[in-house]
Design a protein that fits this description.
The chain is mainly alpha-helical and 55 residues long. It is 84% helix and 0% strand. The chain has 2 helices and no strands.
Length: 55
């Protein structure tokens, strides 16, 4: 999921550079949503494991 967030961020940067402001804004919004979903899922999984790392 973090990978897709970075892909949409890259699309937004390229679109903004080329002048497609609508597409850049939409891609940046999707990237932001995916990043926050990734962050929530990561924190939930971290808490459920009790903060222990798997060797």
């Amino acid at each position: 999921m973090l990978h897709y967030s970075l892909v949409f961020l890259l699309i937004a940067l390229v679109a903004a550079f080329l002048g497609f402001s609508g597409l850049a804004g939409m891609a940046a919004g999707i990237a932001k949503i995916l990043f926050f979903v990734f962050l929530v899922v990561f924190l939930i999984s971290f808490v459920m494991r009790g903060g222990k790392t798997i060797p």
